[in-house]
Design goal:
This protein is of the alpha/beta class and 692 residues long. It has 28 helices and 14 strands.
Amino acid sequence: MQRLGWILATALLCSCKAEPPPDQATPAAATEQPIQSGVDLVGIDKSVKPGDDFDAYANGGWRKATAIPEDRSGTGSFVVLVELAEKRNSELLQSLEAAKPAAGSDERKIADYYAAYMDEAGIEQRGLQPLQPELAKIEAIASSSDLARVLGSTVRADTDPLNSTNFYTDKLFGVFVAQGLQDPEHYVATLMQGGLGMPDREYYLSSDKEMADARQKYEAYIATLLETAGIADAEAKAKAIVALETKIAKAHAPVVDSQNVHKANNPWATADFATKAPGIDWATFFDAAGLGSQQTIVAWQPGAISGIASVVGNEPLQAWKDYLTFHAINHSAALLPKAYADLRFGFYGTTLQGTPKQRDRWKRALDATNGALGDAVGKLYAEKFFPASSKAKVEEMVQNILAAFGERVDSLEWMTAETKAKAKEKAKTMRVSVGYPDTWRNYAALEIRADDALGNRLRAELYEYKHQLAKLGKPVDRGEWWMTPQTVNAVQLPLQNAMNFPAAILEAPFFDPKADPAANYGAIGAVIGHEVSHGFDDTGAEFDAQGRLANWWTPEDAKHFKESTKKLADQYSAYEALPGLHLNGVQTSGENIADVSGLAIAYMAYRKSLGGKEAPVIDGLTGDQRFFLAYAQAWRSKIRDAALRQRVLTDGHAPANFRAQTVRNIDAWYEAYDAKPGDALYLAPEARVKIW
């Protein structure tokens, strides 16, 4: 599933242990309650044959009855939980406001950040004033060294490239800090490509009508935004900015290349950047970026870094000043007066996502507060909304699924004993964190003011960047979390050989402590299996039990694994998301492997949990039927075409409706739903992909 997006503002880890949230589980009733099936019977479309389209069968009724909210690009099971977390976070904010927390406390910072975001009158009154210091620095650029200093000073923390395929940033470069690919004992800084205002290079380079239309509207957006800011010659500058970004896009590595960890393993001596990527005053750049003391920096996309540096050296300073001015305004537009915020939403929300209506301001304020003070909000969230009983039950499921993985490995006829032993060692040592981290970040030094919305955001971004840089030279923290408890998602961390399952995803329809095990294993169990399997997908399988990039495969096993992954990639490349737009099975390979393997492992763990007995029939469905139905319903979704196009082009995940069809690779599904030759989803036994 989609893992970490932008790494937003937080601070240094504190050394204190987190207090476990109190158990809020409701005591058992005196009389035994009937078991709930945990699946949505109303959402089924029985006019569809399961073997032809299992997603439509499981979710067709729901899809016909459901409209996408005007303020969203799509809806589905994840959105249900996002809205639940949103409601809970709103309750937390209201309680904080009523409690009047002490100045300087995390609770006060949360309340003030939110209040500043909601202060529309103050934002209108201040206009562009909060952005003037940054705009003045850009205007003062008079030399290549000045340009390098500004480019370096605006670098911010970028996404984890191992956990995101769409890690573009509007900063020319992004920096990610983690343990070295081949040195798990030390942190290293990684430089990654950026500099684009649209989601991916294809938006600049593709000849498709939709992409050409997006480029035209992007140029118009730039011009209007500059005009609104009172900048002269806005149309000419907009044209030049798009032309400059197109040159940057041509230098960018494609998504599939960026996913290839072997192409990314390029430690460069900082002194060598000048010869390997001429065009930028790198010494000045690194000093301004806080990286001047580093002896080595990893170039994740070396060709892109060299290509972008060449563009920097060959384009006139005025072109870069116009480019930086636009991006400074664009980056902050959501917290500038309404005219700017509306223009930004019109392009990024409506044009690129197809969303007709901007979300209510209070919802955007909650999102922004979560981004800037994620652990502070998360601690309150976990204490109030995640009972210890749920944590214990999910941890038990995780151990059951890890045990099932070990058994699955033992049963693989194609794998040698040597590779099996390494795989089992990695699974056995995998660190599993459920609900919330053991330690919380400390925000004491982060200045938050109730009357400075934009300043709060910019300070929080810088605070996060400094938090990342502060890891350099310190011992590696293998317990570090990359998601907050209130995040509806989960993540596998190959470098840490660890998994995070935030509290907010451990809710129905993914996890319901009152539901029958079939539904829980089919939904959250498959998510757990998915994340376990990410440790053994086409990227995860490159890392050993210590998180070191290392080959632990025998040649014959590696050959079989690659053949199987190609077979699965071909299966997904045959899917057509929109007319003429097919999935890229290689781009989505890691997620597809994790889906197939995770579902198979979750099914094994479910059957093992029955202790050799057959599950009861509930609501007319057998246990196996409920298991697979819960899986498909966990992936129910409805998405706008523009958002779907962006996802196919930029995301490492297949669209949700195709993920629901993963069942076609699982033998037990055929028996559960009587899928036979001639059905659209039917695969002959030898064509079903079994990797783990």
